[in-house]
Specification:
Layout: E1 3-7, H1 13-21, E2 24-28, H2 35-42, E3 48-51, H3 59-63, E4 70-73, H4 83-89, E5 92-94, H5 101-116, H6 119-127, E6 146-150, H7 154-167, E7 170-174, E8 185-187, H8 190-196, E9 199-202, H9 216-222, E10 227-230, H10 239-247, E11 253-256, H11 269-272, E12 278-280, H12 289-307
Parallel strand pairs: 1-2, 1-3, 3-4, 4-5, 6-7, 6-9, 7-8, 9-10, 10-11, 11-12
Amino acid sequence: MSIGILALRGGSAERVAALTAAGYAIVEATKYPSREAAVRAAGDSVRAVLTNGRGGLSAAEMGMLPKLELICAVGAGYEAVDVAAARERGIAVTHNPGTNATAVADSAMMLLLAAVRHIRAADRHVQGGGWQDQWRVDTQIIFGKRLGLIGLGHIGGRIAARAARGFDMTVGYFTRNAVADVPYRHFTDLAGMAQWADFLVAAAPGGAGTRHLVNAGVLDALGPKGYVVNIGRGTVVDTQALLTALREKRIAGAGLDVLEGEPSVPPLLPELLAFDNVVVTPHCAGRAPESQTSATELIIANLNAHFSGKPLLTPVPLKR
């Protein structure tokens, strides 16, 4: 008999087909009028849940799934999964670190280049009938400049490699502890790194510990020629402080794939889009066929391991 899986997130047609072929029966939340309706309908028919970091799974939802054994976060983040409640119930939790890191790192460099080189404004100039003679914007290069990274995990490490090897940039990074065997400069003071850097890229996970790491003080330290890019979580950057810094020209611009207020349309998005020196993409940095395939393979591997009594490949530690 197939094992029931509730897909709250990450239920693309290709993934559902792969999970079905692997012997799992998928309950797709998108086919119900609400998330709560999907959880209630799943009831005792499911033993695992697919979700993501932002959507998570609450203690109350776990309580509606009496046979739940495993929660799979389809991305690297799991900040909205009630890990303490899972621990109390003996429910295992996995996540997918690194499966979309290559795509996100590509997107980070794209956003940096697009913001610094004012691609959005140049495109609108051409769309409006203008050409070279009427274009009066001179933009910086990024080659050989200083890049400050917030986080040096799977994604941050790939961004650092692209910056250092592809653009001859000097790379620094801010983390609680230094990462062994990397050639980059470690900072324990974020404002200090921002002051040192030409460009700041946030590649940090969400959660209370990283909320508003990039605040007014950090943006002031980055300075009027500096650009900030966020491909981590929207909550890492204080959006109101960012807007103020942009209005007052205390920073030069921004490239954003994530914003506070997701998964709904972020409330401050219209104000951000008023700036020609800001580029925004709809939290799609990690989307690529290769990322989807890699994530699906890891999800299935974790499911197979759990239901055959083997160790999980990428467990989330359920520490007290």
